[in-house]
Amino acid sequence: MSTIVSFVLVLGLSTNLFAKDHCSLVVKAVDSEGREVEADVVVTERDGRRIERENRPGGVKFCDLGITPITVTVGSPECNQVVVRNVPLRWGETRIVSVIYDDRPCLVDPPPVAACQFLFRFIDTQHNFVKGVSLKTQTPYEEVHKADDFGRLLMKIPAGQQLLGMAAANGYGPAEVRVPCVTNNRKVEQYITLTKSGR
Amino acid sequence: MNYYDPAGLEACLGDGEDQYRFGGAGCGGYGNGDPTPERPKSDSDRPSRGGGSSLIGLLSQSIARLLKAMTEACAEAIGAKNLDDALKRLQKINIGFSDQGELKVETDAHGNITGVPPGQELAHYFGGIFGIGKNIKLNNEVNWFDPNSTPAVDQNAKQVTYPLLTAEAFQLGIPSMNAGQFMDLTVLHELAHGFKKRHPDDDSAEFDQNIWSHCFK
């Protein structure tokens, strides 16, 4: 399953060249439908100074910044975090940055599963995907599985079992595949390199 | 609803050491209660006195354990500023049940559960609007009294038993866990979302492992 992370950077400038106490930056975090969302907003200045605030209705202000570009980070690093680098700042102007931050997928709590997902990506020695690969497994069950046209095969096997099999494709030598389904292997993505056969 | 110290709760907080650990089995209500407990469809089922055999009673016991056993390390692991912050949030946040639908599973040709389709939820945290209306809902389709006997339906519409304790223990990398620990972990997981902790939508194992190692050991 793929998650599409999108963000829109809207730069606005509110100019008041004569204001002595202008605020440097306002960051607004909104969801994909434009609603303001609860999120941590971090501004990092070039010298490493880090300011962390919570988004609030109307956006969160960072007033005491300089004129060198800064980095704006919205959301948790574990999921769909949005980073906007090199946001330019100008003296006497308030920069407004709007970021689309969608954390709804990060709040979905599926029930646990006692099984593993292994995604095998069959490639040649030049790292190109190989078509027409089949994987004949011995364990957990004797079966034959076919990879897709892009050389990928997703296998799901129960906890405690071991996937053991031999991958083969026309023009390539066989390659052994062996992965046990243990906690640390719950989700594995593995390249399997197939070497062209002699003739 | 504030579950902090509901009526009769002290009765299930004994002096044994187990009581000071999340998921301690000394607090009556699950495991030795009514084998066919009432499963409310909403929060309208109020907590029973003494934390009896209702689902809300089970939740009350879980929250009492969490309040009792919370530590600085656990508070930090769920994203709270400190112990006080975690305790206050646990006391204030609305926690209840909702029907999030019968669990659907994917089975292999041999009947093993090997996945769940998108949209299946054990529980859900709702952030409200800028902090107003925050709440946690546990899925009342889960058999919280005996999670290993949770009913589910597979891709062929066949009824199956979903062993949730076994599955959670596998994800945590531990030999086993009990029903109380499972509910405690679920509440802490949702509470962590309230402190802006997030995880990818199809994998919360590392998230739970972090909570487990800081709060249950």
Label this structure with key terms:
heterodimer, A: 199 residues, mainly beta, 2 domains, four-stranded mixed β-sheet, four-stranded antiparallel β-sheet, elongated, B: alpha/beta, three-stranded mixed β-sheet, 6 helices, 31% helix, 13% strand, globular, disordered N terminus
Could you explain the architecture of this structure?
The complex is a heterodimer of chains A (199) and B (217). Helix content of chain A is 0%, strand content 46%. Chain A has strands spanning 10-15, 25-30, 40-44, 50-54, 60-62, 70-74, 82-87, 93-100, 108-109, 115-123, 134-139, 143-146, 152-158, 162-168, 175-180, 187-193. In chain A, strand 14 and strand 15 (175-180) form a beta hairpin. Chain B has one domain (9-215). In chain B, helix 1 packs across helix 5. In chain B, the strands form three sheets. In chain B, strands 1-6-5 form a three-stranded mixed β-sheet, covered by helices on one side. Chain B has a three-stranded mixed β-sheet with strand order 2-7-8, with no helix packed on it. In chain B, strands 3-4 form a two-stranded antiparallel sheet. The radius of gyration of chain B is 17 Å and the shape is globular. Chain B has 217 residues and is of the alpha/beta class. At the A-B interface, strand 9 and strand 13 of A face strand 4, strand 5, helix 4, helix 5 and helix 6 of B.
